[in-house]
């Protein structure tokens, strides 16, 4: 591992797959040993995992790619092609995750770090959290899916402004435009993100998977197609173990027990 800290790349704790994507080494730039380990863990996801947590181990969530490594490469284009391929394998695995993805966004999320925030289902930051595309500053175009995800979050016009002007977005603005779900005290970002991830572990996992599928297809579906998908989904859920437990618990006025259901 290229980091200077003994940080686990990917570990499942109490049903949450915790993926570290950057450490304090090299200014909390993205660590591709960790990214590649995360890709492998996401591809091997099993029924014991109910949520994914993305986190940085240093002062920042992720400050983007290591620009010094870019500069030192003999063929910079070939090097960036390789790194983008590795990052995009991770992004594809993350997008295919059937369980909710939570990002604990402390400090800066810049460049590809911001792309990861855009890819999370829920992103929790603190008052000191800041986001920045950071690509124009080094004369590069985006990677990590930012040119796809950002317009879908903030709208096409605002995405153009953010990317072209290399805007620095503070926590309050990030919540307002939907890049962050909400903020908590800086010192509570990781704990609160982990708490939220744990709620998905004990919740109706099949329901979350169904919701994610519907949300993923909605940008390209017509209303008519989406209504058909929702009808099919809710009917199938009603006869599933999860749906039966949820309805039966509601009628019995008890808390549903979803653990072990699929």
TrEMBL record:
Name of the molecule in the record: Enoyl-CoA hydratase/isomerase family protein
Gene3D superfamilies: 2-enoyl-CoA Hydratase, Chain A, domain 1 (3.90.226.10), Lyase 2-enoyl-coa Hydratase, Chain A, domain 2 (1.10.12.10)
Coiled coil: none
Pfam families documented for this protein: ECH_1
Family statement drawn from the similarity comment of this UniProt entry: Belongs to the enoyl-CoA hydratase/isomerase family.
InterPro entries (alphabetical): ClpP/crotonase-like_dom_sf, Enoyl-CoA_hydra/iso, Enoyl-CoA_hydra_C
Highest rank taxon of the organism: Bacteria
